[in-house]
């Protein structure tokens, strides 16, 4: 039996928010509705769409939220990872920039963290302040992160 999901959309345009409900969309088997990730993920990132979610089983806890990822020179690595460690206040030794609310999940120091949304990252997933704090508070060491 095929699963479907109703798609709700809210888009900010010139300071106004446009919202609507779309037609039912098919849900790929094994994926959390509205995301490209499975229920095993606690955090999900869609690199191409530049959005992310926090997930609890098949339920979206937060998101989709806008994120800034790496570019073609320093891409955000795709794959399935586990949260390695967290630091509420961290300064990158390589780039000498502050990375508040860091949640490290991939080799090479790749993390979710608070950061500017107008420039690409060096492979990290940058979030605005409120979202970075939510990711930091929600994710625990060992939690699965899926980057698609």
Automatic annotation (TrEMBL):
Keyword Cell wall biogenesis/degradation on entry: yes
Signal sequence extent: 1-19
InterPro entries reported in the protein's UniProt record: LD-transpeptidase (IPR050979), LD_TPept_cat_dom (IPR005490), Transpep_catalytic_dom (IPR038063)
Biological processes, Gene Ontology terms: cell wall organization; peptidoglycan-protein cross-linking; regulation of cell shape
Pathway: Cell wall biogenesis; peptidoglycan biosynthesis
PROSITE patterns given in the database record: LD_TPASE (PS52029)
Key words of the record: Cell shape, Cell wall biogenesis/degradation, Peptidoglycan synthesis, Signal, Transferase
Cellular component per GO, a single term: extracellular region
Record-linked Pfam families: YkuD
MF (Gene Ontology): peptidoglycan L,D-transpeptidase activity; transferase activity
Name of the protein: L,D-TPase catalytic domain-containing protein
């Amino acid at each position: 039996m095929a699963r479907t999901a109703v798609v709700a959309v809210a888009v900010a345009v010139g300071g106004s928010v446009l919202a609507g409900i779309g037609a039912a969309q098919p849900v790929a088997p094994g994926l959390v509705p509205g995301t490209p990730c499975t229920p095993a993920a606690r955090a999900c990132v869609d690199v191409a769409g530049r959005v992310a979610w926090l997930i609890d089983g098949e339920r979206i806890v937060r998101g989709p939220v806008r994120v800034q990822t790496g570019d073609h020179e320093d891409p955000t690595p795709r794959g399935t990872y586990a949260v390695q460690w967290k630091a509420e206040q961290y300064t990158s030794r390589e780039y000498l920039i502050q990375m508040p609310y860091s949640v490290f999940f991939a080799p090479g120091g790749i993390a979710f963290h608070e950061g500017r949304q107008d420039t690409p990252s060096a492979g990290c997933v940058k979030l605005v302040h409120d979202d970075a704090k939510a990711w930091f508070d929600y994710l625990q060491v060992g939690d699965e992160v899926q980057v698609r």
